[in-house]
């Protein structure tokens, strides 16, 4: 039974291996800042580039700001921004709006007005096809900061990977339950 579960998990992972995310540059603001100042781009020169699309916390404030810069040649398909860490107290995604200003999507355990774009294994936020600017901002609050992964993918790629993550989680629960029984 265990051998079959492992084989099934490996077979389900094959489609995700062939898929690639949209390359993004992620930067982190190392100082505390208020939302209006960040969105007015007053701190843009103080964001520090992360070596990859992951953040590994050391110590710092409960609130973190990140900027994600999308490439100019985005695929002409619907995209999704995914964060691979759950649960978080609060996630705000600030998207540039046509004609100026910002559109905010919220999620997280402490967000009463959350837009609930979460999947089983991560937070997922839809990105509009037309972004007037290729930079978007994330404000994350969490009592216990831990590693975060950021990725942008088409919905098809995201759904395939999410299905695999969900299947693996379900298989892990089944194996644990079978050990108890």
Describe this structure in words.
It is a single chain. With 181 residues, this protein is α+β, with helices and mostly antiparallel strands. It is built from 3 helices and 10 strands; from the N terminus they run αβαβββββββββα. The protein has helices spanning 2-17, 35-39, 155-180; strands at residues 25-29, 47-49, 54-55, 63-69, 79-83, 90-96, 102-107, 123-127, 135-141, 148-154. The strands form 2 sheets. It has a 6-stranded antiparallel beta sheet with strand order 2-1-4-9-6-7. A 4-stranded antiparallel beta sheet has the order 3-10-5-8. The longest helix is centred in the C-terminal third of the chain and has 26 residues, at 155-180. The radius of gyration is 18 Å and the shape is globular. Mean pLDDT is 78; it is low at 14-19.
- Helicity range of the residues? 25-40%
The gyration radius over C-alpha positions equals 18 Å
Tertiary shape: globular
Flag low-confidence runs.
14-19
Strand fraction equals 25-35%
Largest beta sheet: strand ordering: 2-1-4-9-6-7
Strand-pairing-aware structural class: alpha+beta
Number of strands: 10
The span between the termini is 14 Å
Biggest β-sheet description = 6 strands, antiparallel
- Strand-and-helix sequence, N→C? HEHEEEEEEEEEH
Mean pLDDT across all amino acids: 78
Helix segment tally: 3
